[in-house]
Specification:
Strand content: under 5%
Oligomer: single chain
Largest sheet: 2 strands, antiparallel
Order of helices and strands: HHEEHHHHHHH
Number of helices: 9
Distance between the termini: 74 Å
Strand order of the largest sheet: 1-2
Structural class: mainly alpha
Length: about 170
């Protein structure tokens, strides 16, 4: 609670007149047409928070998917999502989460899969991320940006000059 005194009353009045800063929308026309969420959130006190966009994990759709996963299980939910032609952002993220789970297992079944198919899967994911980053151009925290950069740098093993030379020597 702020106590307004004679010294700071003028200062407080000035801040009350300022509107909260908002990030510029990605596509003003699309937001006006209703196809993109404007990022404006309601606060728990009924006010409006213009400071940050809602993430997929904070959305109602994500909460519904997580509840559905608890009800029918992850395998049945994955089959349900795969039957649809178009997925929402929460379904896309949930599916990527499942892919990460299975690829991180290094289980025997996936090791038996043709290597070409695994490469196609990874390329499909990379294309999807490329399109998302191109369209959204998200403002990322330095820690998250550093984490993503490190993971991508690790994933370039085999495509940079040093590792390609190493692989060519091994294959001979």
């Amino acid at each position: 609670m702020i106590l307004i005194t004679a010294e700071n009353s003028c200062r407080n009045r000035r801040f009350e007149q300022l509107k909260p800063r908002t990030r510029p929308p990605l596509n003003r026309r699309a937001i006006r047409m209703g196809s993109i969420d404007s990022g404006v959130q309601e606060t728990h006190k009924g006010g409006t928070d213009y400071s940050m966009r809602r993430t997929v994990l904070e959305s109602q759709e994500w909460q519904e998917i997580m509840e559905r996963e608890k009800e029918i299980g992850p395998e049945a939910l994955l089959e349900e999502i795969l039957e649809r032609r178009t997925w929402n952002n929460s379904e896309i993220l949930w599916t990527i989460r499942r892919m990460i789970f299975y690829y991180a297992l290094h289980d025997k079944l996936l090791q038996c899969a043709p290597i070409e198919r695994i490469f196609e899967n990874v390329v499909s994911m990379l294309r999807a991320f490329y399109m998302i980053f191109d369209q959204a151009n998200p403002d990322l925290d330095d820690n998250i940006r550093s984490y993503i950069s490190t993971k991508i740098a690790d994933a370039t093993w085999g495509i940079n000059a040093g590792t390609r030379y190493y692989l060519s020597k091994i294959s001979k």
